[in-house]
Write a structure and sequence with these properties.
Strand content: 25-35%
CATH class: Alpha Beta
Largest sheet: 8 strands, mixed
CATH topology: Aminopeptidase
Shape: globular
CATH superfamily: Gcn5-related N-acetyltransferase (GNAT)
Structural class: alpha+beta
Number of helices: 4
Helix content: 25-40%
Number of strands: 8
Number of domains: 1
Strand order of the largest sheet: 2-3-4-5-6-7-1-8
Mean pLDDT: 76
Length: 198
């Protein structure tokens, strides 16, 4: 049986400030003596990272909305292609590799938005390898994302998280993110799109 689903759009107000363009700077945060850094994604890394974005987002969406994984991944691929038509050269989009010490452990994809009369930064994807989770690396990455948003002059840093992702929700709540909106759905008793009554 399908279950009800919800997702939260979260945001956190930040103090805006202009600085060097984030794509030109290596950003570093120290955690337990080991630096956690964001460095711009190189062209040779992009396809592998986007494959992770598509698989991760597709699988999370499939779970949240009770969809077939292959359909959700196809949807995710179409969305990514629409958002990044020029790849790394797409204006307003910034993709980073998360590096702990000297080891790549994940990625961060953010984009500048200008909705409601103020500048925001939206996190399209943040993902860490399993062995980098639960050790404070994600918290450092979110702090670095806030630094990027400040440098871009953003007022808010925003993201979306699916309801089944309790670990991520706890992290964002502990960092002060609030939910101005919930997107909820409930499946109908019988899917009408699968029927052909003609």
């Amino acid at each position: 049986m399908a279950f009800d689903f919800c997702g939260a759009d979260l945001s956190r107000a930040i103090r805006a400030g202009r600085g060097p363009h984030p794509a030109l700077t290596l950003l570093t945060s120290r955690h337990a003596g080991v630096p956690v850094e964001l460095r711009p994604v190189e062209a040779t890394e992009l396809d592998a990272i986007l494959d992770l974005v598509i698989a991760g987002y597709g699988d999370e969406r499939a779970l949240a909305v009770d969809a077939r994984p292959e359909d959700a991944r196809n949807n995710a691929r179409a969305q990514v292609e629409g958002l990044l038509p020029q790849g790394l050269a797409t204006p307003g989009h910034h993709l980073y590799v998360v590096v702990e010490g000297e080891v790549p452990v994940g990625h961060l994809w953010i984009a500048e938005t200008g909705v409601d009369g103020f500048r925001s930064v939206f996190i399209y994807d943040v993902r860490l390898r399993e062995d980098a989770r639960g050790r404070g690396v994600g918290r450092r990455v979110m702090e670095l994302a806030e630094d990027v948003a400040r440098r871009l002059g953003a007022r808010d840093l925003e993201l979306h998280v699916f309801a089944p992702n309790a670990r991520a929700r706890r992290l964002y709540e502990s960092l002060g993110y609030r939910s101005p909106a919930w997107a909820c759905g409930r499946p109908s008793a019988e899917p009408t799109s699968a029927r052909d009554d003609t």
